[in-house]
Amino acid sequence: MKLPHHLLPACAMLLALSVHAEKVTVAAAADLKFALDDIVATFNAVNPGDEVHVIYGSSGKLLTQIQQGAPYDIFFSADMAFPRTLARAGFAASEVKPYAVGRIVLWSTSRDATKMTLGDLVDPKIARIAIANPKHAPYGKRAEEALRALNLWEKIKPKLVYGENIAHTAQFVQTGNAQVGIIALALVINPELVSKGGYWLIPDTLHAPLEQGFIITRRAAGNAAALRFADFMGGKSARTTMARHGFALPGDGGNK
Question: Per CATH, which fold does 104-201 belong to?
């Protein structure tokens, strides 16, 4: 069946758009929830033909899923070590690119955390303390490092409850299942949480830097939209958004 001549240009345009449009599935550390949601919205506004879908979780578990064949096109990790591991094993179609440095804080919705330090966690009145699971969550690993640096780990270990990722850890505190949590600065300064509790910034001299990096995965080697989104993350708009959400940026003075 032949189409009327006046419909041909419109159909050609729709066909061109459908060919150009590509989907990008992003696996991202949970500390990026608020920042990356904003960045994706801005990216979609200037790239309406692309579709970006983000799955949040702990960096270690996302690493394992990629190794097992999960269909992720870009991996944003809260620890540079994880994308480096994937790159060494042949799972990457790009070099590992740094995108941020994170910070950890003490946060509480029931106590004035602005006047607390890590030493206050030994207080018998504090029965449950939430951290992300250090076995697969970089923020939890850094929390453990900071506590060990002050010889507090063994003293408070019986009080600890472990979140699957840093967002899950924050939920423990929000719901009252923990009185205090060690979570990401990027979460507590977001409007959704900032009005619910105060925080104390943990000195970054107590733990290894939370240097965060990403890769385009091997499966996305031919995905032009994945490359566009990766390039967008290095641009001024995305960097401004990351800074607004509490991250230090590569090339902007380190992790202070």
Answer: D-Maltodextrin-Binding Protein; domain 2 (3.40.190)
